[in-house]
What does this fold into?
Amino acid sequence: MDGTVSTETEDRIRTITFSNPAKRNALSPAMLDAFVAALDEAAEDDTRVVVVRSGADSDSFSAGFDLSVFGEGSDPDETEAIFDRFVRRLRSFDFPVVAMIDGATWGGGVELALTCDLQVASTEASFGLPPAKLGILYPARGIQRFLHVLGPSDASELLYTADPVDADRASEMGLVNDVVPPTELEARAYELAGSIASNAPRSLVGMKKIIRAFLDQSTLSPAEQEWVFGLRQEAYESDDHSEGLAAFEEDRTPEFEGQ
It folds into this structure.
């Protein structure tokens, strides 16, 4: 089962709900394609704000990008490109996007939340970037995004420790705008969305384009991208990566040797 993506529109607010409970709402390529299609549809109607939420049938907001759909030895550059296309489409959507976050949020799920313009989290939410525990490197695009939004100190803490932080710590880092009890999460997210939807559309679109332009100022050259790919390829082919995956499957602490 690849998971599902559903949409609903009311009062110029488009809700996009993704669900993959068997895999803690991990995002499969098929789900990402459906997500992009939902954004494309919203761009053609009177939508002025999008709310992104996960299905209520899991205790996770998202376990990240579902790498399990790829075979062993898959090309990290190829898999990254799939998620990158989705992130670029989400960021390029003209109107503001609000993430409504409840439960554990890992890896690509954190990047999904940060790619949205605003984030509302419940007190039950947590956020973690686990690649260092799996012997791999997070994609450079995501690292750049974390540095822009969180700053070097907080981004480094998440990436180097690979330990999750709770919603209050995430708020201190600037990862989320608001933290509320689970029973108030939906009301707060749609209160925020309604406030946005009532504003002038040209103002919303113009300000988002300006904000996006400033955030996109620093980009990697083709040579730098190739260098980053080499680093990631080495990590994917390492013994440490195999150990990290085995430890995860066996629910034990990995023993990394730097090989």
